[in-house]
Amino acid sequence: MARISASVYTSHVPAIGAAIDHGKTGEDYWKPVFAGYDFSKQWMKDNKPDVIFLVYNDHATAFSLELIPTFAIGTAAQFKPADEGYGARPVPTVIGHPELASHIAQSVIQDDFDLTIVNRMDVDHGLTVPLSLMCGQPEAWPCPVIPFAVNVVQYPVPSGRRCFQLGQAIRRAVESYDEPLNVQIWGTGGMSHQLQGARAGLINAPWDNAFLDRLIADPAGQSEVPHVEYVREAGSEGIELVMWLIARGAMSDVAGGPAPMVRHRFYHVPASNTAVGHLILENG
Ligand code: DHB
Ligand code: FE
Q1: Fewest beta carbons within 10 Å, which of 11, 20, 106, 268?
Q2: Pocket test for ligand 1, best of 154, 193, 243, 269 (most atoms within 8 A of CB)
Q3: Regarding the domain with residue range 3-282, which homologous superfamily does it belong to in the CATH classification?
Q4: What is the ipTM of this complex?
């Protein structure tokens, strides 16, 4: 049986990708951001998974107002880094895991979560920046990655509760896969930020840190928090944080296992317009 060994949570700020790609990580502005991931890069080497199930949001790159899947699973053999207007990032092509992805689609859809199946898709900063933060600049990503895109851009977006329940269904799906694969699940996006309108530039550090506390200790309670609180307290793009509940819902304590170990926690303001948050939780 496959199992989920750990969950990783991180912001996905596009300027972080640009700083890496243009050799600016040593600049004073960026140093403290990347310092927060030194532990994580070593941890990735020491805890290399067989597959990463990467929950992220597409930013009108692969999808648009013409087609808005709430939950979309990438079942292809590979996914190219997208051109988001400045050319594609110079990062490796993402190798998928069509067998596990198809199994998860089968299991989760039979478990009453309707997923969109995606056999061709370019992946934007929502997916590639977390990989860069955790893996650095390798020739190839360390393992296959299953992209799982969530609509948090165009309302109606899924509730925290639905995301948390979906995470539980994903854990059941992984655990019913025959091969003994070590799977990590990543939840990405956030933390507080707002890119437009009168409140552009909003950051709410106390709220972000309370979110991290509660995600660790009381994810079921956090999953009941309505959208309006995310938007009011963490800004219009703070809603990306509901995706973290998918990864958290897949941890074994939610199904009665021991509490996860907090291996790493990091918070920093600012990176571009965003508060950066990061957690690594290992299943006990
Ligand atoms: C920024 C953050 C995001 O999450 C994003 O998708 C785009 C831009 C920013 O901080 O500029
Ligand atoms: Fe984003």
Answers
A1: 106
A2: 193
A3: LigB-like (3.40.830.10)
A4: 0.96
